[in-house]
Amino acid sequence: MSVLLIEAFYGGSHKQLMDLLKEEIEGCVLYGLPAKKWHWRARTAALYFMQTIPPNDNYRILFASSVLNLAELVALRPDLGKLKKILYFHENQLVYPVQKNQERDFQYGYNQILSCLVADTVVFNSAFNMESFLTSICKFLKMIPDHRPKDLERIIRPKCQVLYFPIRFPDISREHDKDPESFFKILLKLQEKELPFHVSVLGETFTDVPDLFSETRITLGSSVLHWGYLPSKDDYFQTLCVADVVISTAKHEFFGVAMLEAVYCGCYPLCPKSLVYPEIFSAEYLYSTPEQLLKKLQNFCKRPEIVRKHLFQGDIARFSWAALRGRFRSLLTAEPRKDL
After folding, report:
1. Interatomic CA distance for residues 253 and 287, integer angstroms
2. Residues 151, 194: one domain?
3. Rounded to two decimals, what is the model's pTM?
4. Number of domains observed in the structure of the chain
């Protein structure tokens, strides 16, 4: 073994990446915490891993997601601090949306900045994620009342690179941050206009489900094909394969695994003209306002053959594990640090 994988929030796309690396790259050992109570994982995971990861002279590389406070861990475990430390950002806390800016907990973003400073390599799943983080550091640190640190973007940026999240596409024949309110509002307007459609609402739930979900499900009635989490990946992909359109109304997205999986399964994507989406999808698949989204969906409901005959204009193969395998292997098979 030579690669120590650490995931403080072992669920969703975080779990998907770690499982893929462990399975595909020889010499990986994985330690994780269940994907619950995200805030407490960010606050205390380093202390947990300090006690649960046994010392091992064979480790050469430490790979962790940015949920972990890497600075705390390497201070508590100097033996791990000697490894080449790679930090992977699925999302960043400097621009992660909150209802009001006063609600933003300074500590989470601060922890990520500290983690970047002690890491040897900092990897982001998109250019949007990287630039939104780096260019927000100075503004974010202005929350400190005085004696603010300087030039941290200049120190961190040379360590940074973009490496898209690797998706293992299937073998087929073909929360407030996701803004469900806007999505459901669009569906209800389609229903009011008596336009024919069916919908599947898929996704994992980590906390309490808002009343909006259950109320909308009842209102949509027979238009609902499936509602809720599908534990079987095969069932999940089969549901995508019978769909025509996949919609995002996200207020935050740093990559968008689910959207790309749906496109691979034959869905026509409709995404906001913001966040990471312009980096991945061409203008044809982007909308600027809810009104534009509604207009497109109305047209699709009246003329479903438009999307059923459509061939996606773009290269999603570049996001596949097959395409990205080499870069991840190079990242995780690098030589250990020689300055320690």
Report:
1. 15
2. no
3. 0.84
4. 2
Contacts of 254 (CB under 8 A, 6+ apart): 89, 90, 91, 92, 124, 125, 126, 128, 129, 132, 275, 276
CATH number at residue 229: 3.40.50.2000
Measured N-to-C along each axis, helices 180-192 and 290-302 cross at an angle, to the nearest 10 degrees, of: 40
* Parent domain of 265: 176-319
**DSSP, res 163:** -
Q: What is the mean pLDDT of each run of 10 residues along the chain (340 residues)?
A: 94 96 96 95 97 96 98 98 97 78 79 98 98 97 95 98 94 61 84 83 64 74 75 86 91 92 94 96 96 94 92 94 96 65
Instruction: State the virtual CA torsion across 136, 138, 141, 142 in degrees, nearest 10.
Output: -110
The answer to whether 3 touches 29, Cβ cutoff 8 Å, is yes
Looking at the domain assignment, is residue 151 inside a domain?
Answer: yes
Residue 340 lies in a domain: no
Q: What CATH number is attached to the domain comprising 78?
A: 3.40.50
Residue 201 phi, psi dihedral angles, 5° rounding: -110, 110
Predicted confidence at residue 222, as pLDDT, reads 74
- Spatial separation of the C-alpha atoms in residues 329 and 65, rounded to whole Å: 17
For 75-198, strand residue ranges (E) read 84-89, 121-124, 160-162
Q: Are residues 41 and 157 in the same domain?
A: yes
| 164 within 8 A of 20, measured Cβ to Cβ | no
Question: Are the beta carbons of 74 and 17 closer than 8 angstroms?
Answer: no
Is residue 227 within a helix (H) or strand (E), and if so which, with residue range?
A: strand 224-228
